[in-house]
Amino acid sequence: DHKGAKFDEKHVVLSLGVVSDVHINLGVPATSQKWEGALRQLSAKASQSDADGLDGVLVAGDLIDFPDNRLIAEFKRVYESVLDPEKVPMIYTVGNHDVPKYRWSETMVKDAEYLREALGDSYFRMDLDKEAGEGLECRHCVFGKYHVLSVTPDGTSPIVYNPEALEWLDGKLEEITTKDPSRYVIVITHPMLYDTVYGSLLGEADGIWKSSLPGYWATRELQEILSRYPQVVAFGGHLHFPLNDPRSIWQGGFTALGCASVRYMALEAGGYEYMAGQTVMKDKDEFSQGNLLQFDRRGNMRILRMDFYNEAVIGEPLVMARPSRSGKHLVDYSFSRRKALNTPPSLSTMELSLRLAPVSEPAGFSVSFASGTDDEFVHHYLLSVSHDGEVVATKKILADFYKHPLPSGMKPSWTVDFGPESFPGPVEAGKYTVTLTAFDSWDAESEPVVKEITL
User: Fold this and answer.
1) Residue 365 contacts by C-beta under 8 Å, 6 or more apart in sequence?
2) How far apart are CA 186 and CA 200, in angstroms?
3) To the nearest 5 percent, what fractions of the chain are helix, strand and coil?
């Protein structure tokens, strides 16, 4: 997968958990269990290659489900049941669920004060800029030689930041990277950065679902600043999109990554079958993911995408060489490069069989097909049914890539039912043409497989 950088696993100098969207809710005990499981697994995984284990945990917002002191007390209780905040600091940025009405506003700093009070001083001992922290919710912490900056919006839809916060971010990045240009700098903020990683176009340009809240999911305000600093590694949350997808890391003028969600999964409004809502699957809760971020002694970086639900690492590690003036470290995970190297999926078989129905109903049919193959994995399938040259029914099937740490675990075949409810009107007798196409994450499509059935 990755041919460039080498990571020295024998000399890891820093290990940080980077997660988001914990959404602690006392009415849903699974939220506490998932948070505890994530912390235990991050700690255990870090200890395998880092002599002093996990050094810190970064939470990119939505610590809890809604603002309530009892919820943040539970978040804290679970954290301290696994880790000591004095030894393994927890650094957070404020998510929209952490403030009233799920929206950041001009009163954001005041709205978030209760978090500071409930957590207590030991959670802020790493902060180097108390004034910016308490006045803007802009935090600056250092782990060894690695700087972590966090920024929080103060407006929603579109997601905007206080101009002072933007100035602060730019100033800090300039100061840090001037002193040490060949070391990565971590930035965390809850929203995604528009048009970067998987999910960052939700409700805007993905064409299927126009959100009633434009600009609610991703911000356009940070890219200009971050693009000046190729050392930046920016993590966002908010969207819960699965890390299995190769688009969960993006490189342009800087590097951006998603954090998925500790609590549940969401994804694009793709019009898929088996959905519980526009952007959530029926099995959304069979999910919990996050990142383990590590640096070796030479400044190379490795990200292990963690599947906490299945207690496994997702795919191959994401590895990047230390930042260089030439920008070579920003090539391997650029979308344009990976699209150019990508090969489309392929399909082998599709079988059709008549579905018996009671006499009073028209019969339908079932489509069975072997899962497609791809250099990464098939993202989704499109089944279309035509009659007299007109498409009369379609079904989009999301592949089960998000349920399996490795594509080899994905199901080998699918069966999809086309009952009378699949068609807009009465099902006429005659010949129907069924076409199956597979798509990968880069929208490359397979050669279609076509079959005919007579109803």
Assistant:
1) 352, 353, 354, 355, 418, 432, 453, 455
2) 19
3) 25, 30, 50
Return the structure tokens found at 161: 């930041």
Tell me how long the chain is: 455
What is the pTM assigned to this prediction?
Answer: 0.96
pLDDT-based confidence at residue 255 (cuts at 50, 70, 90):
very high
| Paired tokens of 120 | 């207590």
Q: Terminal CA-to-CA distance of the chain, rounded, Å?
A: 46
User: Using CA atoms, how far apart are residues 151 and 123, in angstroms rounded to an integer?
Assistant: 17
Per-residue pLDDT at 215: 85
Q: Which residue bears the tokens 């790493």? A: 126
- Residue-wise DSSP of 290-314: EEEEEEETTS-EEEEEEETTTTEEE
DSSP states along 365-391: EEEEEEPPB-SS-EEEEEEEEEETTEE
Its sign, for the CA torsion 101, 106, 111, 115, is positive
* Cα–Cα distance, 246 to 341 (Å, whole number): 13
Q: Nearest Cα to 425, choosing from 399, 453, 390?
A: 390
pLDDT, average across residues 316-330: 95
Beta sheet of 90-92, edge-to-edge order: 90-92, 56-59, 12-19, 289-296, 301-307, 312-320
Quote the CA–CA distance of 84 and 87 in Å, as a whole number: 5
* Amino acid letter for position 54: L
- Say if strands 12-19 and 289-296 run parallel, antiparallel, or are unpaired: antiparallel
Q: What is the mean pLDDT of the chain?
A: 95
Angle between helices 69-82 and 29-49 (to 10 degrees): 30
Q: What is the pLDDT of residue 455?
A: 85
